[in-house]
Amino acid sequence: MEGYVERVVEARRREVAKALSRSSIGESVEVHRPLADLIIDRCEGMRINGKLDGVCRAIFKDGHQYEGEFHDGVMHGVGRFTWTDGLVYEGEMERSKITGRGTYTWPDESTYSGGVVNGIRHGYGVYYSPVTRTTYSGHWVNGKREGKWTFGDECT
């Protein structure tokens, strides 16, 4: 029996690492249309010179929703964007692009908090999956992980 638990833990760690390396969560690429291409169906909020400005709420033709800051008619500042598939982003926006610091939350409650450039994880961030109890803290470059992984509480 000695060594059995260690072998099981190591096998599970490899299995999780392999699954994450193939998943869109582990190696993210942009899977949604750029936000600047979305067409607003209806909105609530202040307008300056006919353009949304300040804190506003927008519902897009495809059902996605954004609640947050607008400037000169575009999403700019801090806000919350919710896709119809359940993915949520809360954080900084720059000229209708998810850029800055923020948090993605997937329908399975996995999260990524950290740097984002054009909707792709970039810079320091923390990914956590409650399903696999997997945490990764480190650097991302163009959506790909770089650095050391921490798997659950028991091993790295």
TrEMBL record:
InterPro entries reported for this sequence: MORN
Subcellular location: Cell projection, Cilium, Flagellum; Cytoplasm, Cytoskeleton, Cilium axoneme
Database matches in Pfam families: MORN (PF02493)
Protein name: Radial spoke head 10 homolog B
Keywords assigned by UniProt, alphabetized: Cell projection, Cilium, Cytoplasm, Cytoskeleton, Flagellum, Repeat
Organism classification: Eukaryota, Metazoa, Porifera, Demospongiae, Heteroscleromorpha
GO CC terms, sorted: axoneme; motile cilium
PANTHER family linked to this entry: RADIAL SPOKE HEAD 10 HOMOLOG B-RELATED
Source organism, top-level taxon: Eukaryota
